[in-house]
Amino acid sequence: MSRYAAASRLRTVPSVPDKGAIVAATDIEPAHTERAVVTHVDTAEVPSAEWGWSGEAPRTFKAAGIIVALILLAMIIGNHHGNIENIFLVGFALAIFAIIGYDWIYRRKPR
After folding, report:
1. According to the model, what pLDDT value does residue 101 have?
2. Which residues pair with residue 20 across a beta bridge?
3. Which of 18, 44, 54, 61 has its C-alpha lying 20 to 30 A from 10's C-alpha?
4. At what angle do helices 84-108 and 58-74 cross, to 10 degrees?
């Protein structure tokens, strides 16, 4: 027996007669609890939505954006000699602040 035949023998998938190979099930099991889902995410598509992990955290994202922008501005103080780095650092920090400001203004307006 050649080594290729032995290798292909090891890679065989168990099968059921007249039904093909055994694979993972495609049906979805029902939830064991009757908890109401507040989000507009289908639990069939995103199973973690059942226990509340599919939502947005705008305050957390804004705080993280402000922290990242401040870290970028703090990187101006460094051992570099050119100003190109400073331009990019300030530019990205201003872009982050602009996105946060845009979100802050337009989230308050009713749609």
Report:
1. 94
2. 16
3. 18
4. 160
